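User: Sequence in, structure out. Go.
Assistant: Echoing your sequence, followed by the structure tokens.
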Amino acid sequence: MTATPDFDVPGLAKALRENVSGGVFFDAGVRALYTTDASNYRAVPAGVVVPRTVTDVVAAVAACHEFGVPIVNRGGGTSVAGNSLGGGLLIDASRHLTAITEVDPDTRTATVEPGVVLDDLRAAAAPHGLSFGPDPSTHSRCTVGGMIGNNACGSHSVAWGTTADNVRALDVLLADGTRLTVGATPPAELARLSALPTREGRLYAELDAFVRRHLADIRTGMPNLSRRVSGYALDRLLPENGFHLARALTGTEGTCVTVLGATVDLVSVPAARVLVVLGYPDSPAAADAVPEILTHGPLTVEGIDERLVAAAGSGRRRAKARLPEGGAWLLVEVGGDDAADARQRGEDLVRALTQAGGCTGATVVTTAGEQRTLWRIREDGAGLATRLPDGSEAWPGLEDVAVPPEALGGYLRGFDALLAKYGHQGLVYGHFGEGCLHVRIDFDLADRPRFRDFMAAAADLVAEHGGSLSGEHGDGRARSELLPRMFPPGLCAAFGEFKRIWDPRNLMNPGVIVDPAPLDQDLRAPLVGGTADVPTLFHYPHDNGSFGQAVRRCVGVGKCRTSSGPGVMCPSYQVTGEEKHSTRGRARVLFEMLHGELITDGWRSDEVRDALDLCLSCKGCRSDCPVDVDMATYKAEFLHHYYARRVRPASHYSMGWLPVHSRFAAMAPGAVNALTRRPRLAALLKRLGGITPERTLPEFAAKPFTRGFREDPADDRPPVVLWPDTFNNYFSPQVAHAAAEVLAAAGFRVLLPRGSVCCGLTWVSTGQLGVAKKVMRHSLRVLRPHLEQGLPVVGLEPSCTAALRSDVPELLGTPEAAALAGNVHTLAEFLRTHAPGWSPPALPRSAITQVHCHHHAVLGFDADEDLLAAAGVANTTLESGCCGLAGNFGFERGHYEVSKAVGERVLLPAVRAAGQDQLVIADGFSCRTQIAQETPRRAVHLAEVLRAGLDSRCTSSNDGCEGT
């Protein structure tokens, strides 16, 4: 892991830069991004190539062959076995090699480059009623090349098989530069190819002779189950299997060839599907029911248990509500010719399983939205299971064992006994329909002998049940050493011979499958712990106060690398496509900063600063990441230490201190606005303040809300405190006035804090945490009389409300801060909780709504949607993610292009396309500003919409509601 490479790194770098048009990186910052995948392992690559073309890959492999450098090919980097990392040259095809060359509905095939994301392939095939059958839970970011490397499967392999079952042909490159296309090889063609006087001819001749020598071992020594992913699939070379080289190479984990392209089979998808959810007392009981379920021809049978559901948290409350009674559940998907047929088949299955006994409850879910909500728990399992119910960390290792489905119940009982023997806990879930289980275990990875003993005992248990150590992710560094416990000696020897035929110099991903590295070598987990942490300002209450443990939340499953779909994270990655700008990439760099081997200057690291630069602090990862990584907090922490006793960027002084500047500007807002309207002066101010020239400076209101609002001391109705945040107080006081009217109409007396208050957000987001704490403490002192009375506090600006609920208690760590967090509500939350009988006036309008990132991540938007529905608003909540402005981010010099590109993904086109009679709703000041500066429309706050209903002044004007 730390050894100096025994090859000429400068020579390799020179050759690559001369011959590769894509990115060639040997700096510490980029290498840090690729030190690990989603596994327990860490290895520092000598260099990284991000090829732009297939020709670049050929040139990179040629340079490695010339200099004797190991080659590691990487797709999405989401595998948990440690098979996409190493100390040589790492080739990342996921950035540019993403072409779908052809989708042929007649032959039902697609031809793709290796970096194509699975969901993109499925989307291209969908118009023809086709799809690629294998669908691992990482389908939104895993690449087809990576799936070929691991022989990935997914939940629908019950119906459509593994990746190997769906590969027709591969365009492959050998380490010595030989390039060929391989697939099924009829006997006559095999004879012809074997006779060629070329490297290709010798290859076929050697493989033909190899199969003949090992025919008996191959036919008798390989476990007979569909999810046998461990070892090499030598049985694909048997004559009865068509001597299918493409399928034999699928699952070789980059140890034999580099895949340059693939032709894959596509499958017809059912016209309709329903999801049958079956409850059982526990996972073994659920497993016992699987053989009977398989007789009904399901598309998938997935298992989860109550511990995984508990780990899903309150954000998935709706999914939990749909689960029937039980301690474990099977999610069984059934297809049909139409919706009625699918539902009937689902009900037939429920009837049969109920009659069979053992089932504690069942439900048939027909709507696509509810199905997606339930599937999210299962698909997020790899992340959710990394934290056990007691908060302890859990790790992969025995991540995807597969046994015959009829042996699954017995295996699970034996596995539970094994866990108990070693005193371990583990969350088990997975592909019950094919006997494939995922589990994360609370290993003490610092105790390597105990770890080795457990893994050996577990491997023996798998072998006893006729199973495979890997049923999906490959062997990698996690299980290759254990293969002799599963395969007889003759087959293990054959694996080595097979690899040497393809890769005689052992350059292709050495240490995996053949001549494996010890399974306890290069473990990354013990490298960073509480003892490695320096003092921090945030308290990290969910990570035992440890910044290192917080950073370790990122296990590499890569959901932040999703470029489309619902959710918020990660906006910068969505527009740049670079690993450096993903949440995972940033977490990797922070990990390496704490470890100190590759990034050596700690909190003063420029590499970390650069990696964090395009983080919008949107907090999307806090909710959308399966393990709740909170990169906005980590960024604020880093910036605090990085700029300690240093001059900060100008934007930290201008926008970081915006609450103070606003108070002064409010003394003469007209004069300030007149000055900022003058182009030359505005340009100077922006240059001095570190603000990008493309942005227009927002104008201050003529009178702040706090000066225009008057309390009624005679009002004896229940009191509520309205939080006068900087943005709505000084820039859009009409929002606060509207909220006050709505609260009064709902039966409450509106109070303001008896003094100036601020949540401290602008100082937090710029890493000025010392100032932020002082501001927060002052606000708490002002609020103390209200908190002592237990009065609810309503926030209107989502970012400030979220800061009161999360940043304030996590930064201060005091009982008062916790009390405030518990009393803070959004307007919709407050009305739902404290005025359940109040109904807003009817407002028969249609609307589109942009949800502020912090609203999505920290507060939740369900109450807002319910309130709009109660008001009669036909609302569509946009699946737009971040607006792109994100507080100070979009105003900072150097960020405008990314800021606008994020908005142009979904939000801004949706606003431009909205009808003139549609409301555009956005509670966030940043969101409204982005919309105002980049479209002809003006967005309104929920409070303004509700007040317009009260006043009966809603019209079909361009700006939404007259009078707002």
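User: And one key feature?
Assistant: The longest helix spans residues 769-788.
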